[in-house]
Amino acid sequence: MINDELQKRAQVLIEALPYIRHFYGKHIVIKYGGKAMVDEKLKRQVIADIVLLHYVGIKPVLVHGGGPEINEVMRQMGKQPKFVGGLRVTDEETVRIVEMVLTGSVNKELVELFNQNGARAIGLSGKDGNLFTARRLTPDETEGVDLGFVGEVESINTDVLRVLIDNGYIPVIASIGSDKDGKTLNLNADHVAGKLAAAIHAAKLIVLTDVRGICRDQNDELTLISTLTDEDALRLIEEGVIGEGMIPKVQACIEALKGGVEKAHIISGAIPHALLMELFTDEGIGTMIIRSGVS
Amino acid sequence: MINDELQKRAQVLIEALPYIRHFYGKHIVIKYGGKAMVDEKLKRQVIADIVLLHYVGIKPVLVHGGGPEINEVMRQMGKQPKFVGGLRVTDEETVRIVEMVLTGSVNKELVELFNQNGARAIGLSGKDGNLFTARRLTPDETEGVDLGFVGEVESINTDVLRVLIDNGYIPVIASIGSDKDGKTLNLNADHVAGKLAAAIHAAKLIVLTDVRGICRDQNDELTLISTLTDEDALRLIEEGVIGEGMIPKVQACIEALKGGVEKAHIISGAIPHALLMELFTDEGIGTMIIRSGVS
Amino acid sequence: MINDELQKRAQVLIEALPYIRHFYGKHIVIKYGGKAMVDEKLKRQVIADIVLLHYVGIKPVLVHGGGPEINEVMRQMGKQPKFVGGLRVTDEETVRIVEMVLTGSVNKELVELFNQNGARAIGLSGKDGNLFTARRLTPDETEGVDLGFVGEVESINTDVLRVLIDNGYIPVIASIGSDKDGKTLNLNADHVAGKLAAAIHAAKLIVLTDVRGICRDQNDELTLISTLTDEDALRLIEEGVIGEGMIPKVQACIEALKGGVEKAHIISGAIPHALLMELFTDEGIGTMIIRSGVS
Amino acid sequence: MINDELQKRAQVLIEALPYIRHFYGKHIVIKYGGKAMVDEKLKRQVIADIVLLHYVGIKPVLVHGGGPEINEVMRQMGKQPKFVGGLRVTDEETVRIVEMVLTGSVNKELVELFNQNGARAIGLSGKDGNLFTARRLTPDETEGVDLGFVGEVESINTDVLRVLIDNGYIPVIASIGSDKDGKTLNLNADHVAGKLAAAIHAAKLIVLTDVRGICRDQNDELTLISTLTDEDALRLIEEGVIGEGMIPKVQACIEALKGGVEKAHIISGAIPHALLMELFTDEGIGTMIIRSGVS
Amino acid sequence: MINDELQKRAQVLIEALPYIRHFYGKHIVIKYGGKAMVDEKLKRQVIADIVLLHYVGIKPVLVHGGGPEINEVMRQMGKQPKFVGGLRVTDEETVRIVEMVLTGSVNKELVELFNQNGARAIGLSGKDGNLFTARRLTPDETEGVDLGFVGEVESINTDVLRVLIDNGYIPVIASIGSDKDGKTLNLNADHVAGKLAAAIHAAKLIVLTDVRGICRDQNDELTLISTLTDEDALRLIEEGVIGEGMIPKVQACIEALKGGVEKAHIISGAIPHALLMELFTDEGIGTMIIRSGVS
Amino acid sequence: MINDELQKRAQVLIEALPYIRHFYGKHIVIKYGGKAMVDEKLKRQVIADIVLLHYVGIKPVLVHGGGPEINEVMRQMGKQPKFVGGLRVTDEETVRIVEMVLTGSVNKELVELFNQNGARAIGLSGKDGNLFTARRLTPDETEGVDLGFVGEVESINTDVLRVLIDNGYIPVIASIGSDKDGKTLNLNADHVAGKLAAAIHAAKLIVLTDVRGICRDQNDELTLISTLTDEDALRLIEEGVIGEGMIPKVQACIEALKGGVEKAHIISGAIPHALLMELFTDEGIGTMIIRSGVS
Across residues F20-49, what is the average pLDDT? Predict the structure, then answer.
């Protein structure tokens, strides 16, 4: 007489227990981006997933960029976005717009979605609590192109994260920082996520992208590689198997692994509840990268 | 291409979120008994359910009796169990056996099941940490029958529960206590659960029984009453609708509600994962009792 | 032989001691706005003053708006700022721009200035940590005009402030909030400061404006009123002595005093180090409002 | 005029001060067994001694077995106790009885005695809080005899002891554990006490036996050895001076010393207040074993 | 064979247990004075007694005066001690000497004795940590005599005592204070002890004197009153039964009882270990004063 | 219109910010002595300076001697102060007077001055909380002269300082200690300050003297050396440039630097607010000694 459906639901919950137990009390850094940040429904699902992680005792940290919205605002302000080799050329006016959009629009929208889902989040950029200090890239580092106010994380000060997480807040971090002189710099969000994951000794880095993971043939999802080592990944970059758009994501994973993170994942944010599927099943749904030589 | 099954499982998890959020950090007292304590498979499922509650931030406290196993050991020791009006006549030798079986066999088996499920439990009786003090019932209180060493909880000292729960341990409590002179007393586990739920300001008391809940016609589960008030429940007892076996369970619920517990539930422990179904769905699967006059 | 100048400097420090002692460990809410937020030099001075307060054991909380920069960005985006009765008409696109500018540009610039001065600040809006929830004003409340997405603070949740302040961070709060449905609302920063000061039991609310304080004759600074009660202030509003631009500031002060704040001050942010002069001297430099009937 | 008796009593208390000071805040593991666990009066005295230790700032941990009571219950249940080489052959039914008697009868009686003496104790077995995990002994390890469900401690998890002791509870531990698969195992209580003493860095292990200590001639208490080293003890075992019954006690002492315990004692529990006499006088009343090469 | 003496000593210790348990964790204020502060042997015994109290979990606070040594130093400095009605006339030079002797000689000697007995004490006067503020007595309050710099405690600030006691230090307090203007005042040590006992909610105030307690006939110790109420005590003062020297001691006791202290004792410090005899036996050896109407 | 004077005062405060920030949360040991301890006005200024340091987040520890007052009391008591090679010959009676004056008069007066300035101080000698243990100097160590009860610090027990400072109290330490047998010893206050500064890892040791600092020509303040290394200082002692009176001060500085203190200063306590001038300006007003080889 008891509803079979209820029975099945209970069964699913109980099957999640070993995973919940495994990640209990651990930090997981999630790089949020791509379609999952544009589609309203996907956005709500990602946030709900993260709130669930929070309530079952996992400690998520969210890092985000926000390309599409930046371009839109730039165009509204009569400025044409410019890219060289896939990287945004960021003059002084552009960096101001990038910061405004990332920390004042994208970030606050995410924070509000946490409120709506019954969790408390705090939006941060590298400037808040001096979370991280960045360094402007020289043209030498960007193949001779002057990208303007573009930088990379130099040092991280995790105290503010510890304070917020210990008090039950979820940090939501925009990929904006400043250098020692206070100059605002546009940072690559994948890179920021990798660095932060290492700095807080996260158990996992999960990068949400628009594709299924690393595929042997980028045009055929059936060639998805489920697991590979960081050494394998480096070789695949050299061999050109991993395409340009995917390279910074893979590099962020490798950086995190080097810094002591146990496992890094590249999964598709376009699949509803991809986070839960990757974390709470053995098979997973994307690509997992592990350190070579570590069983 | 993604497995529909995985998708569905993630959906189930996310639908549990509002319930998890609602009970987060709250105490729930579970009276464990009946078939669910005899059937090996059911036993494992109940413990797994409780471990899940623990990991999603709920604070379960387990109270148990253990009738069938007591009778078995008594018979092995050449003693015939004796009941008057459904209550065990407990002479000095019997109370020694009851304590030995409840605290030394049933309790330790439950504690070990928690170990096997990756959670840490501590077995207690009323004697441990002086958790509760009891008082021997007089024949006047038991319709003229001298039940021997049978008593009821007089005062509760919740400090040991607070210490254990705050440090991540699940208390598993056998319904045995002692009076001021140190005499061991056999206590009714439903009653103990109701008193404890009130003492620790639990959000819920859940009584696991062998039937679906309170039914208008005890022989027809289709007459199950989903929700009723404590006043309704008292009337149904007076009217004889609630049968003798169910009365102590209902009284325990009423006692808990009086003591400030928000809701009390009587559900069937024979249904796999009944706990999760009752806690994590709106419909529930048994009977919920609420205070009259409280919306 | 000892430098007279050094001697004099030491003397000044020592004369600040009674004031430092008096405010030690107390919260002071500072509403930051006007010229002091436009002029680069004044901006640096205000932040340096607040950093000094922080280091001498006072607990400052900063609340800011940012009118001029909003207008500038709106114009860059081809939108004409519109005001009715001095209040900004805030349609959906406008509120998005207001939020972006206040929380993503003005707020982050202030936070960075704290970094440059050796203190750690965290930028917040009402959305972060659900610091406050707002309510959209109805046309009835705004003299029949539909101001759009404009609201007022309804409830405040001070936990995040406590956590940050106890851990040595200075909160910098933009006057943006959201209602229960997550809709972003533009709030009056004076009003937010007054409400917050009451909620955290601040010792003082200090409103930085562009004039010396409340003057009997707005065109003559020599008519400055040094001290008045909240009742006096209400009467002066009724009598039309206090002009329209000053009214919300005075109302914020009255609201703070009603909520238990000891003293409220309106001072000119255009005077270098006005904060220090008001806090660390008996005379003060602006207008102080106290509760009537409290000596 | 003042009572000489009172004077003398005060003198005795004051002479205990150097000993109290010396053991203040230190852990002492007491292996409780033999006549002192059978005789009602001795039992009360041992518990009173331990309560006194607790109140003067020492942190006692009690470990007990319970041979005689096990045999009695086995016989009541129609089972004949069987021993090979002094060790109990423990089939599945026997281990169930052993656990029931040790954790459900002996342990709870001790806990209740603490209640009666105004201290709060918590009864534990290896299963509670996963205090220790055991390993079943192979016939190879027991001279070719299959002793059944008999094991030895493999790993200890002291967290639950720390939590209880820090909160003012006295742990009372029955020598029952389980292996990784949850199988219950009968353990030697001397061995458990020795292992625990090492694990919690106890200052002392005190083994209560039925004889005065180690004697050169087991039949002549006048040949009692007051102090010897662990090396001496090993030699005496080899030479056959230390009899079979005493060997596990001496081995437990040696194991504790190896693990860092400062001193181990074997004393007679049949002497009233033997614990106090051993701890609070220089002479002591039994045998003290120290590490060789440590002054 | 076991030494009867050892046995007896253990018995004495165990008989102290109920008393130790009763006072465990409670504050006891001891007014130290009279012969017990002059005789070297008695001095050592009193300190040893207090160290014992400290180690068995009681929290002693010591208050002392120091008449004889003050007179001695005054004479060495060529000043003649002067008394009116038993009270020291304390001119400016005298108060300087009194402070110097009490806080710089008597107090430090006591502190050092604690060091020698293995406990850590901190010497304080009312000035240290602003422990108490005093008020100069007017001639009206001293029967028309101007006693000079003599005062009484006006307000007590127990924070420093809490900090020291919680960290394991024994406070040793000299009866010297200062008024609001910083003027040093000589205070009556009995009075200070009574006030402090009330302020810290002590379980007991014990006044060490040179006589057995309150006697019906001051010249006959056989007329000692073992127990009386505060009302009885007041009546005996009125009736002249209690002599002038004893009155301030009795008044201190009454003040302490009024402030919530459970029991106050007047005992002879000339009896070795009087403190232990009074605290650790039912009979006691002096006079105990209790509140009338409190059973 | 705004008072120029106010403006200037604010400017001075703000210019102190970098210094305040630099010393925030750090320990500074101040050796107090010389004229600054005799002149009433200077005394008040030094205490006010230290209270200011305390309120701006620096953690001062004061060490003092008290030569002139000792001599005065000795003479009042008919004893002639005797010095050999600048060191006081301290017989048993003298050491008693020295302790009485230092801990009972000088120390308490300083503590009271802190009360008057709104800060809470606790007076200590080496005996209190067993802060330090000393060792009597042998005639061999004092050029063949038997100086009597004169010693040097042997071991320091910083727990009491940590407890007091963490709870907001300022320790004021008299240079008196005791040896292992409890014998009181007169200690050199410079030496005590140097040892303590090293033991608590102070950022600075500041020695207040009666001269400007170390001068090449002691009779010409214009030859003041602003900065030198510890090696330079040792060489200047050997060369006789540093006079006898200054040597113990310089040695204390060197000892502190060896123990890890960052910088040591010798300044004139006769200059009003010398402490503030030295700490809060780059130039300083006396001599700063740094470790050689440390930039």
Answer: 94
pLDDT greater than 70 at residue D39: yes
Nearest to A221 among B1, B55, B285 (CB): B1
Close Cβ partners of E288 (under 8 Å, ≥ 6 residues apart): E226, E227, E228, E263, E264, E265
- What kind of fold does domain B24-220+236-290 have according to CATH? Carbamate kinase (3.40.1160)
Tell me the mean pLDDT in the region B251-271: 96
Cα angle for residues C188, C192, C193 (degrees, 5° grid): 120
Tell me the pLDDT tens digit for each residue of C20-59. Answer: 999 999 999 999 988 888 899 999 999 999 999 999 999 9
Closest Cα of chain B to A9: distance in Å?
6
- Written as six digits, the tokens of E168 are 């394991």
CATH code for E24-275?
3.40.1160.10
Q: Pick A4-290's CATH classification: 3.40.50.300, 3.40.1160.10, 3.60.10.10, 3.40.1280.10.
A: 3.40.1160.10
Residue D1, pLDDT above cutoff 50: no
- In A, minimum Cα distance to B47 occurs at A14
Could you give the residue ranges of the DSSP H alpha helices within chain A?
4-23, 40-55, 67-76, 92-101, 107-116, 159-166, 189-199, 230-238, 247-258, 274-279
For residue F295, the model assigns a pLDDT of: 54
Task: Report yes or no: A76 and C74 within 8 Å, Cβ to Cβ.
Answer: no
Rounded to 10 deg, the angle between the B4-23 and A4-23 helix axes is 80
Our answer on whether C and F touch (3+ beta-carbon pairs < 8 Å) is yes
pLDDT band at A23 (very low <50, low <70, confident <90, very high): very high
Q: Where are the domains of chain D?
A: 16-290
Tokens 């000044």, located at residue: C12
The H-or-E segment that residue A64 falls in is: strand A59-64
Site from E94, E95, E100 to mutate, F interface, most F CB atoms within 10 angstroms: E100
User: What pLDDT digit, counting tens, does each position of E234-264 carry?
Assistant: 999 999 999 888 999 999 999 999 999 999 9
Alpha-carbon separation of residue F205 from F16, F60, F263, F286 (angstroms):
20, 10, 7, 13
Specify whether the CB–CB gap between A275 and A46 falls below 8 A: yes
CATH number belonging to domain D16-290? 3.40.1160.10
- Chunked mean pLDDT (size 10), chain E, 295 residues: 79 93 97 90 95 97 92 93 86 96 97 96 98 95 89 96 98 97 96 98 96 91 94 94 91 97 95 93 90 75
Both structure tokens of A1: 């007489």
Nearest-CA distance from D141 to chain E in Å? 40
Give strand ranges (E) for chain F.
Answer: 27-32, 59-64, 83-84, 87-88, 121-124, 132-136, 150-156, 170-174, 176-178, 184-187, 204-209, 227-229, 263-268, 287-290
Helix residue ranges per DSSP H, chain D: 4-23, 40-55, 67-76, 92-101, 107-116, 159-166, 189-199, 230-238, 247-258, 274-279
As a whole number, the mean pLDDT across chain C is: 93
Local structure of D143: helix, strand or coil: coil
Q: What pLDDT sits at residue B159?
A: 97
Distance, CA of A46 to CA of A28 (rounded, Å): 14
Q: In what order do the strands lie in the sheet with C27-32?
A: C121-124, C170-174, C59-64, C27-32, C204-209, C263-268, C287-290, C227-229
Whether chains E and D touch (3+ CB pairs under 8 A) is answered by yes
- For the domain spanning C23-290, the CATH number is 3.40.1160.10
